[in-house]
Fold this sequence. Notes:
oxidoreductase, 19 helices, EC 1.1.1.22, six-stranded parallel β-sheet, binds uridine-5'-diphosphate-glucuronic acid, alpha/beta, UDP-glucose 6-dehydrogenase activity, UDPglc_DH_bac, 450 residues, binds 1,4-dihydronicotinamide adenine dinucleotide, globular, Rossmann fold
Amino acid sequence: MTSRAPLKITVIGTGYLGATHAAAMAELGFEVLGLDVSPEKIAMLERGETPMYEPGLEELLRRHVAGHPGASERLRFTTSYEEVAEFGDVHFICVNTPQKHGEYACDMSYVDSAVESLAPLLRRPALVVGKSTVPVGSAVRLAARLTELAPAGEDAELAWNPEFLREGFAVEDTLHPDRIVVGVRSEQAEQRLREVYASPIAEGSPFVVTDFPTAELVKTSANSFLATKISFINAMAEVCEAADGDVVKLAEAIGHDDRIGKKFLRAGIGFGGGCLPKDIRAFMARAGELGASEALTFLREVDSINMRRRAQMVELARQAVGGTLLGTRIAVLGATFKPDSDDVRDSPALNVAGQLHLQGAQVTVYDPKGMENARALFPTLRYAPSALEAARGADVVLHLTEWREFQQLDPAALGEVVATRRLLDGRNTLDPAVWRKENWKFRALGRPTA
Ligand SMILES: NC(=O)C1=CN([C@@H]2O[C@H](COP(=O)(O)OP(=O)(O)OC[C@H]3O[C@@H](n4cnc5c(N)ncnc54)[C@H](O)[C@@H]3O)[C@@H](O)[C@H]2O)C=CC1
Ligand SMILES: O=C(O)[C@H]1O[C@H](OP(=O)(O)OP(=O)(O)OC[C@H]2O[C@@H](n3ccc(=O)[nH]c3=O)[C@H](O)[C@@H]2O)[C@H](O)[C@@H](O)[C@@H]1O
């Protein structure tokens, strides 16, 4: 790693994380080559189209993808590992690390496969940087594998650089991260990563240098803390329901204490997505393997509080329609796990919709950006082209993902098309007074019934 030429960067795995990272690296001025095993994804990216909905990403791609009028041409894509190995000085691994089927543990097969594909082709000095979220201990194992397989031997070095971006804000979070964490084993690796992140560092992003296990643990503990905060407020919602208190007021009031803070205290049907749920489970599984399972038993509770909130929403819907769901018509507003994303992985909204469907309700779903992904995952649900159409003839309307569009719904207009004016707010972002004024029976998780 002694070359002085401008760094060339590759990004392996161009999903939510990798596509954003590749475009952001081009924006920072590097020449970038992105690789994925999916030729369809690569074909889309080459056309400057995003395989997922992420605000601002398409614009960024088009500013840099070769072949677009006025583009910097610093960003290209391929499916060839040979090309990637030949091209790059720094290779970022951004492949998926899902939950294993039927187990809590993380499925490392995609990361392993990426390293096994790349390493034997590395003939010149290179830094391989893991970004995927992995169980602690993975980097040590992969570093040994890299040295073993790479013709460049010890000149092919590993580093771990976990990612903290949020979907919906991925571009902003990547260009202006609130911290950069690197696990390294050499001064050279640290310097190379400082070079990569020179602009965010210059803008004030703290740069934390540590060892492999700590870098891996920073990521899983950060997500565990966020999940714990959400389940804490959802536990308070359960108590509010029992005592007829208001969890929204409670969150606002405790949040005024700087030590607690206002963020991540939105009670509702809980957390989902491709990260928090699987990350806390993988963390528990890994702690068990390390003989430290007792340290994380609280995460089991965090997980079960979270799943109970989905069940409670199903129960409230059952009560709202008079005790039995069979044959009732339910409108579900929202399918994605959060607004401003098309991601439906472990979405609480779709999970609730699926449970209602299984119990005999006729469920019609509308989501501004997640319809295609929702249909692919839950083909047996009904789908409508607008909130109004989903609500037509409904016995109860469920608000399950807090898209801005739903905050602007007109209770009077929606009231004209439903069978009965009943609304359940699973995200606590609708104003009960506004809906009740239009004669809606309005209930929300953790809020007073009247
Ligand atoms: N989605 C997010 O907001 C964030 C995700 N992460 C972590 O980043 C990693 C990736 O997550 P996502 O981007 O959401 O997943 P994703 O599923 O959207 O993307 C992963 C991509 O890797 C590709 N891939 C799989 N095996 C491959 C291989 N052997 N070689 C090349 N490409 C391969 C897949 O085709 C897919 O396009 C996970 O570990 C996740 O926990 C971390 C921070 C944020
Ligand atoms: O590892 C990851 O992939 C990422 O996981 C989360 O990001 P993300 O999954 O995009 O979404 P969040 O904004 O964290 O929301 C996660 C879930 O929690 C729910 N949530 C969030 C906040 C809150 O107060 N209440 C609440 O129920 C959201 O609706 C959503 O379902 C973390 O916030 C990121 O820092 C991390 O990089």
